[in-house]
Specification:
alpha/beta
Amino acid sequence: MKKLMMILLLVFSVLSIHSAQASPAVADQASSATSERKSIAVFTTREQDDMFWGLVYGLMEQACDQLGMRCVHYYAQNSHIRMEHQAKEAIESGFDAIVVPNFKKRLPVIVKMANEAKVPIFTFNSGFLPDDNMGSPREKYKYWIGEMLPDDSGAGYQLAEILTKQAKKIHSGVNMVALLGNIADMASIQRQIGLVRYLEDHPEVELKQIVYANWSPDMAAAKASRLNYRYPDINVFWSASDGMAIGVLHALGKKEFITGGVDWSVEGIDMVKSNPKMIATMGGHILEGAWVAVILYDYFHGKDFADETLQFRSPMMAITKQNVDEMKNKLARRNWKNIDFTSYSKVKNPSIKKYDFTLK
């Protein structure tokens, strides 16, 4: 009897050890089978109340809620070191995917960390620089599964065009200053490329100087004041963001000039409506986070977007004096529940063959 008991105990112990070793995979399968609620970690370069990122995450959160996913935000507060630490924390926390922009060239490090940990990572808003040598999604890094980037170059070109046409109605010549964001941000670089392309096409526009204001309204205000002193004939301030354009407006309220920015921020749209000097805001990429949520939902549920593309490009359009009232109503801050994000999912709508993320 004792021998029988010992044999049974030995068998039970072996089975227990085997069960313990297998349990993570079994638990994952059970969790997957019983719960479809996936979790996404999302990163921003700035603060929670930022005029652009606040809209991005408001829309993304609504999309995640409708699709039954959990969305957790991380705010780097303008520190690339903080973002890298936060990404490491998120990667180790068991999220189903992380969604992150490039910021001061930290994205390659974060992608490599996620790839090593076998955590899917989707890049958006700001991509890699050419010298990052990262290739394309799933080429060098299997778990870098895709990217969605705005047409920043096109936005920079179109903004310069709108501002120049308006300036020519008022002044005999166009004297321009350009305010850019961070020197290492792809969004800033691409918007500058669009501006330079426009200036090459229109040599009659005189560009006095390009300065970096780090996306900061306060820094833009301070630099605009100094530039105005240096070049008193400036009549156009091209700005890579609404925030910096608004900084210029606050600094040079009495001066005769026009400006415009990028982001479709609530504050920027309000300025287009109420301030004659704010001519336009370019945007549409505030929806990128929501579109990424739709894509990831489908990916989690067996519909890989690789069948269509791994590199999405979101278009931008201008909000001007002519369409500001209509667009302001459509983009009311608390109106996101009126958008049915589930209707864009291929899993929930099998008849959809290609994603339609156009602004129309």
